[in-house]
Specification:
Oligomer: single chain
Number of domains: 2
Strand content: 15-25%
Shape: globular
Helix content: 25-40%
Number of helices: 16
Number of strands: 18
CATH superfamily of the largest domain: Aconitase, domain 3
Radius of gyration: 21 Å
CATH class of the largest domain: Alpha Beta
Largest sheet: 5 strands, parallel
Strand order of the largest sheet: 5-4-3-6-7
CATH architecture of the largest domain: 2-Layer Sandwich
Structural class: alpha/beta
Length: about 475
């Protein structure tokens, strides 16, 4: 019996090149402003149109400011990128959701919430965190700009088939432990290269019990273990999440789709190239201490000592700690921080805002903390206001910004200043990722909330009864 990954991949094979890659049909191409300009330029040079324009959706997110979106973008580079995407979409007859439009937001947040991302699909985007969409039971992965051009022109891509891996997480997560902690824990154990060459299926009780938002967070971070992508088999939770969404099938088409989606699971005797099992009880709230997402630890633990790090990794270990201003063996509890960022394609969904808001309710933001609270889409912003979360956040000293990638990466105005510490719910903590010289500590919305109200790194479980 095939794995779930095999079933979807094999159903999309157009042809196999002998001693070469597979020509794979792509159901959905998402385009944003950063990795698409050269692809469209390539089409123009060759006099080509898009082969299946109805399967391509465009929206700016990386360069968009998170304030005054109704005004012209001040930064000339960002403005050019955003304007170019708008023109390309218009010239090639593609769906485009620009700033201030209700359907705009981070493309990896909008796809699932609008029903554009569906089980059994193959999905690509010129962005590594395309793996997010695998949470819907899809084969989704990031591609390069030349490959974006290939899909625009042919709705197909040439790809070598990855190996398959199943990561099972048995048991139940403790109170205060989230999908983000689960992902950071996996990376701390497997390193940032532990899943290189594989497509990962997540399984087990702890994964099954995650909400759809939690599964999206988990799959989002698959790329940070080196995986080509990550996925979760669709189930009743998936189907309930999709039903009624704007682009979801309706009527008879829904019944037909549902019958197919229910077949999308790995067989009981499916053989994976690699199997790894973890226990949910071993996972606690996590925080990173270094400059890659695999340099993480339980919030009550200490940074490793040099002797516990392999000789091959010591130089990069010491370089990372030097950049972060930490020492081997340090505890991070009580460490003063400067910024908190809630948002990104990792943790910019409504569930993340509910968690953050539930924690800060009745408390107040610490005076030493600047907090950027950024919804992943206008739909999330709408939900925040409908549920009254905005009122609670305002009473606690937090202001909501407009949707966009924001401080996840230094491509817009939301940059962390040099030397400042940021507790961030985003996906990467590389040197300079949030701004030149910025020091990023990746964490869950609950850990971010605890830091925001105490002004220091704090175990959120200290406040959870």
């Amino acid at each position: 019996m095939n794995t779930l990954f095999d079933k979807i991949w094999d159903a999309h094979v157009v042809q196999k090149v002998e001693n070469g890659p597979t020509q794979l049909y792509i159901d959905r191409l998402y385009c944003h402003e950063v990795t698409s300009p050269q692809a469209f330029a390539g089409l123009r040079e060759r006099g080509l149109r898009c082969f299946r324009p109805k399967q391509i959706f465009c929206m700016p997110d990386h360069n968009t400011p998170t304030h005054d979106q109704d005004k012209p973008i001040a930064d000339p580079i960002s403005k050019k990128q955003v304007d170019t995407l708008s023109k390309n979409a218009k010239d090639f007859g593609l769906s485009h959701y620009g700033m201030m439009e209700p359907k705009n937001g981070i493309i990896h947040v909008v796809g699932p919430e609008r029903g554009l991302t569906l089980p059994g699909m193959t999905i690509v985007c010129g962005d590594s965190h395309t793996s997010t969409h695998g949470a819907m039971g899809a084969v989704a992965f990031g591609i390069g700009t030349s490959e974006v051009e290939m899909v625009l022109a042919s709705q197909c891509i040439l790809q070598a088939k990855p190996k398959s891996m199943r990561i099972t997480i048995d048991g139940t997560l403790q109170a205060g432990v989230t999908a983000k902690d689960m992902a950071l824990y996996l990376m701390s154990k497997m390193t940032t290269s532990g899943a290189t060459g594989y497509f990962v299926e997540y399984a087990g009780e702890a994964v099954h019990n995650l909400s759809m938002e939690g599964r999206l967070t988990l799959c989002n971070l698959s790329i940070e273990m080196g995986a080509r992508g990550g996925m979760v088999a669709p189930d009743e939770k998936t189907f309930a999440y999709i039903k009624g969404k704007e682009y979801a099938p309706k009527g008879d088409a829904w019944n037909k789709a549902l019958a197919y989606w229910k077949t999308l699971k790995s067989g009981k005797d499916a053989i994976f190239d690699k199997e790894i099992v973890f226990q949910a009880k071993d996972i606690e709230p996590m925080i990173t201490y270094g400059t890659n997402p695999g340099m993480g630890m339980g919030i009550n633990q200490h940074i490793p000592t040099e002797e516990t790090v392999s000789k091959e990794a010591r130089d990069s270990f010491n370089k990372a700690l030097n950049y972060m201003g930490f020492k081997p063996g340090d505890s991070l509890l009580g460490k003063k921080i400067d910024y908190v960022f809630l948002g990104s394609c990792t943790n910019g969904r409504i569930e993340d805002f509910r968690a953050f808001t539930s924690f800060v309710k009745g408390k107040h933001k610490a005076d030493n903390v600047i907090a950027w609270i950024v919804p992943g889409s206008w739909e999330v912003d709408k939900q925040i206001r409908e549920e009254g979360l905005d009122v609670i956040l305002k009473e606690s000293g937090f202001a909501i910004r407009q949707p966009g990638c924001s401080a996840c990466l230094a491509m817009n105005d939301d940059k962390i200043p040099e030397g400042k510490y940021s507790v961030s719910t985003s996906n990467r903590n590389f040197e300079g990722r949030q701004g030149p010289g910025a020091r990023t500590l990746l964490a869950s919305p609950l850990v971010a909330a605890a830091a925001a109200v105490t002004g220091v790194i704090t175990d959120p479980r200290d406040f959870i009864k």
